[in-house]
């Protein structure tokens, strides 16, 4: 029986990275590429603000090709959906039948993804869905996954968390109401090491800046 080919929606963060690890463990699909949206104006991963060169280093360490989806800045929802529709059409034409996501529990996000894939010939897969995020966060750390908080929503979390390592100490410092995996957008991460990578992605801390209502900790290649 042929194993279906899958793209993994790749934000550069810990959830996407751990989803890759889980999918490889399960062996029910073959991940053949990482699908990432990039801000054309700044050459950075959309939302996370991670430099394109670090994204490329991640893909190389994961042994997978990058499917880059360039987005204009600013980007309307219509422009985003058109760009993603193009990527989905290409995937279906190349014999890919699954798009996997690292989403954890936000029902509206899952419903949106399912609706956008309807009729494309691609089916969504959510390998981490519904898991207890406190348990999952501990499992990620225990697996050897290393990640850095690269974006913090200051309305939910103190800006001082930007640039911190995602580890047991950080989890114990999170205030009540903040999801341990940051699933409600409290924070976003960059994964630099773990069982999904053949080797670490060396990074060094750059400057911390406030921009567009968020606090970003820039990372540079080490």
Describe what you observe in this structure:
- The protein has one domain: HUPs (Rossmann fold).
- The strands form 2 sheets. Strands 1, 2, 3, 4, 5 and 6 form a 6-stranded mixed β-sheet that branches.
- It is built from 6 helices and 10 strands.
- The protein is of the alpha/beta class and 222 residues long.
- 31% of the residues lie in helices and 27% in strands.
- The termini are far apart.
- Helix 1 links the parallel strand 1 and strand 2.
- The mean pLDDT is 95.
- The CATH homologous superfamily is named HUPs
Indicate the mean pLDDT: 95
Number of domains: 1
Q: How many helix segments? A: 6
Distance between the termini: 43 Å
Number of E-state strands: 10
Structural shape? globular
| CATH level-1 class | Alpha Beta
Radius of gyration: 17 Å
**Architecture (CATH level 2) name:** 3-Layer(aba) Sandwich
Beta-strand portion reads 25-35%
Structural class: alpha/beta
Helix coverage percent: 25-40%
Strand and helix order: EHEEHEHEHEHEHEEE
The largest sheet, given as strand count, sense and whether it forms a barrel, is: 6 strands, mixed
What ranges have pLDDT less than 50 throughout 5 or more consecutive residues? none
At the fold tier of CATH, the topology name is: Rossmann fold
Attribute tags:
6 helices; 10 strands; Rossmann fold; alpha/beta; 222 residues; 4-stranded antiparallel beta sheet; 6-stranded mixed beta sheet
